């Protein structure tokens, strides 16, 4: 986290632990705030890599599941980054910005992904850089999110994944049933923008934003879930994160075979459990009559109604057989919730 930005957030009441905003002095109430009010949340805990250079586009085209040629500076998309077996190493929110490509991902994966991308550069004219601390990012969500942004910027992106440049910041409309935007800016402008938006929104820690990501059905890869899923298992195809018409990329043969040779047998779902602790990413999901795991937790966050809402990947036949349970065969039953898109 940029030191100037960290000092500002601390003055605003943020409790910061290892570069992540845990809460704003009200941890017990923040889940309810996130679910019922307009919120603003720092996103410094997410990793941000920049890929630039003469060959940047062709280089990335051979690395990720989506078509980076479609990124034109006014849009974004999700893209998977796979190993040769088609298993996800990371999921990027990708966009073209000021002559470079930006890749946002789970912060715990940033160093490994930067190292891996650099390993494949070889003789290409490509530069991979870490911009996590240099570019300040925060998100706002809620019914009045657009109103809050218009009060400062004048207009806002209307369509999902639309990117809009302003003098001091870039705005990105994120997918989901709730209005959500991400703001990208420089340290010298961040405090002023935050202060203006704060008049319309209540600040929350990273878990409040995580809950909104979960409600939008957006998957994530963490160190615990690397190489556990092919992209379709996490609904990346439904989210527009796979382009089946583009050329080759690492893992493409497996991803394409899954698409063309049969129905996907595992999918990501949204659920809720009544529990005192969050199910960790990578923890198992069990079927009614099955002692073996039938799925895996993807990401989780405290629910405004108590307990936890979470995304989990599971064998579809197990869903048909009866209730599935979290973390153990006698663990809490998972209450199915509706995703905002159709599988």
What does this structure look like?
- With 343 residues, this protein is an alpha+beta fold.
- The protein has 9 helices and 19 strands.
- Strand 15 and strand 16 form a beta hairpin.
- The mean pLDDT is 96.
How is the secondary structure organized here?
Elements: H1 3-11, E1 15-17, E2 20-23, H2 30-36, E3 39-42, E4 47-52, H3 56-61, E5 76-82, E6 88-97, E7 100-105, H4 110-121, E8 127-130, E9 136-141, H5 145-153, E10 163-165, E11 169-174, E12 180-185, H6 187-198, E13 202-204, H7 206-215, H8 252-260, E14 266-273, E15 284-286, E16 293-302, E17 308-315, H9 316-321, E18 325-326, E19 335-337
Keywords for this entry:
Elongation Factor Tu (Ef-tu), domain 3, 30% strand, 9 helices, 343 residues, 6-stranded mixed β-sheet, 6-stranded antiparallel β-sheet, alpha+beta, single chain, 23% helix, 19 strands, Gyrase A, domain 2, 2 domains
Extract low-pLDDT stretches.
Answer: none
CATH architecture of the largest domain: 2-Layer Sandwich
Q: Tally of extended strands?
A: 19
Distance between the termini: 37 Å
Query: How many domains is the backbone divided into?
Result: 2
Strand % is: 25-35%
The radius of gyration is 20 Å
| Helix and strand pattern | HEEHEEHEEEHEEHEEEHEHHEEEEHEE
Q: How many individual helices?
A: 9
Overall 3D geometry? globular
CATH topology of the largest domain: Gyrase A, domain 2
- CATH homology group of the largest domain: Probable tRNA modification gtpase trme, domain 1
State the strand order across the main sheet: 10-11-12-9-3-13
CATH class group of the largest domain = Alpha Beta
| Share in helix | 10-25%
Query: Largest sheet, if any?
Result: 6 strands, mixed
Overall pLDDT confidence: 96
By secondary-structure content and strand pairing, the structural class works out as alpha+beta
């Amino acid at each position: 986290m940029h030191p100037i930005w960290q000092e500002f957030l601390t003055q605003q009441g943020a409790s910061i632990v290892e570069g992540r905003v845990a809460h704003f002095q009200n941890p017990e109430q923040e889940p309810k705030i996130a679910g019922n009010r307009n919120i603003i949340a720092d996103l410094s805990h997410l990793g941000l890599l920049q890929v630039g250079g003469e060959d940047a586009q062709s280089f990335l085209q051979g690395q990720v599941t989506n078509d980076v040629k479609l990124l034109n500076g006014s849009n974004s998309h999700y893209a998977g980054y796979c190993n040769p077996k088609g298993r996800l190493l990371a999921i990027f929110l990708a966009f073209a910005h000021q002559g470079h490509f930006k890749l946002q991902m789970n912060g715990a994966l940033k160093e490994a992904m930067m190292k891996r991308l650099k390993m494949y550069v070889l003789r290409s004219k490509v530069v991979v850089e870490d911009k996590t601390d240099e570019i300040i990012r925060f998100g706002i969500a809620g019914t009045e999110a657009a109103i809050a942004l218009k009060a400062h910027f004048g207009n806002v992106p209307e369509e999902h994944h639309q990117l809009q440049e302003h003098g001091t910041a870039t705005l990105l409309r994120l997918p989901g049933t709730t209005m959500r935007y991400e703001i990208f800016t420089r340290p010298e402008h961040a405090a002023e923008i935050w202060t203006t938006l704060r008049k319309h929104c209540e600040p929350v820690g990273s878990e409040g934003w995580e809950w909104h990501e979960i409600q939008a059905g957006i998957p994530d890869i963490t160190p615990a879930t690397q190489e556990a899923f092919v992209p379709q298992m996490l609904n990346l195809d439904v989210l527009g994160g796979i382009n089946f018409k583009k050329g080759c990329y690492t893992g493409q043969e497996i991803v394409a075979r899954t698409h063309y040779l049969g129905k996907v047998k595992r999918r990501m779902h949204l659920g809720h459990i009544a529990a005192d602790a969050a199910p960790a990413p990578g923890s198992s999901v069990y079927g009614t009559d099955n002692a073996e795991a039938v799925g895996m937790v993807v990401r989780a966050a405290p629910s405004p109604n108590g307990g936890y809402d979470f995304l989990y990947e599971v064998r579809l036949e197990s869903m048909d057989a009866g209730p599935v349970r979290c973390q153990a065969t006698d663990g809490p039953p998972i209450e199915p919730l509706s995703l905002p898109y159709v599988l």
